[in-house]
Amino acid sequence: xxxxxxxxxxxxxxxxxxxxxxxxxxxxxxxxxxxxxxxxxxxxxxxxxxxxxxxxxxxxxxxxxxxxxxxxxxxxxxxxxxxxxxxxxxxxxxxxxxxxxxxxxxxxxxxxxxxxxxxxxxxxxxxxxxxxxxxxxxxxxxxxxxxxxxxxxxxxxxxxxxxxxxxxxxxxxxxxxxxxxxxxxxxxxxxxxxxxxxxxxxxxxxxxxxxxxxxxxxxxxxxxxxxxxxxxxxxxxxxxxxxxxxxxxxxxxxxxxxxxxxxxxxxxxxxxxxxxxxxxxxxxxxxxxxxxxxxxxxxxxxxxxxxxxxxxxxxxxxxxxxxxxxxxxxxxxxxxxxxxxxxxxxxxxxxxxxxxxxxxxxxxxxxxxxxxxxxxxxxxxxxxxxxxxxxxxxxxxxxxxxxxxxxxxxxxxxxxxxxxxxxxxxxxxxxxxxxxxxxxxxxxxxxxxxxxxxxxxxxxxxxxxxxxxxxxxxxxxxxxxxxxxxxxxx
Amino acid sequence: xxxxxxxxxxxxxxxxxxxxxxxxxxxxxxxxxxxxxxxxxxxxxxxxxxxx
Lengths: 490, 52
Description:
The complex is a heterodimer of chains A (490) and B (52). Chain A is mainly alpha-helical and 490 residues long. Chain A contains 22 helices and no strands. The two termini of chain A are 18 Å apart. Residues 477-490 of chain A have low confidence and may be disordered. Chain B is mainly α and 52 residues long. Helix content of chain B is 65%, strand content 0%. Chain B starts with 6 loop residues before the first helix and ends with a helix. At the A-B interface, helix 1, helix 4, helix 12, helix 14 and helix 22 of A face helix 1 and helix 2 of B.
């Protein structure tokens, strides 16, 4: 192939990658190392401290460690099964693939879910940034303690502006910073662990009591694992977009499991131990570092923490902006306009929730379970049971009635009924406000029943309603719509 | 009725229907190992963690 032809092929692949079009195997450049780095960069962020801190409410260090690792692997089970086979086969991301289950227009719901999850994580970081600065001011500038919440809110909103100014330069600038942030957080986690062990001792961590456990031991385990499961479910979109650039599902699977699953799991352990050893910290090491690290170590580590938080929030706003740009007409907006539109709701929520981060976090975790467990259940059932691991790829991109995935007005009502049933099951099993649960959450968690019920409703609805009416391409699973330009290509 | 797509996208949709252009799928062995890592290992972790 001539140099000119190679450049043309490369440019075509770049356009396909940016627009979410299928990537051909020959164009895919991600090997095991690239996938692992991309996954680990996304997973290993300062929100891991928050996740681990939540587990510290329910379990001591030893069972908490096992629950975090088990929950991470269980969460990635659902996400990997729902995304890796289809995204690798056709080189498409999770949102595009969801058009086969929710409909061409219905898949905009997937875009919203991706936006909301990316922003939710970022909002948590903005609030923690605000609280960290407020703690610094209380400790070193003698600011009255009762000013903490308003100051945290103001600083949190200012942090959104700071992140906006940093990502103003465009997506390329942000993408290249991901691995740096991951390394920073990993190093910081190790240093925090060392300081914890030095100050509190291994015995102090192991014997520390959880903050607010239930009487039911199984309930504590299930709740702790649920936190990790839903945290990993939020990688649904990231996973699809990363593995579509890999030529092999086998080469993708293990880097995804280790990078995402254990990345969050191992990162969360620091939050767990901090949450147990420093009561009231919720896993955030700021106060501990300031009080125990000494002025120099404390301030250096807090600055390090703030930089890592800013870096992680940049990734979050970037991911949310990319999701929003998949909506009709939004991709025609300037990058700068998109990030402002994305960031304004974050500013409002940061201002409102700055003094109730724990409530927001519990609500956000429930949202992740409610949103992504049903989607995963539906996609797994559709891909493995109904479509026999085949899509009509052309129909994923056609926006009118000629698409097999147009369903009714662009929406698959069976997909939405299944989605709604999964939400209902989740909310019945686990109250997102009080975080109280019903049987059988102690033994099955809330996410797995929600995913299973969604998948079952989808299968039954498809067999009873869609297939007899010839909707959704289920009547001819092995046929593909004939493209009219086939002859032209030849 | 067929709707028109951008020519590059149309070409890709046609090409990706060929197994040579598709990503290599997981084998049965891959699925078994996947289940071991994400189902059996977590179950073992839960059992061990509960006993300790």
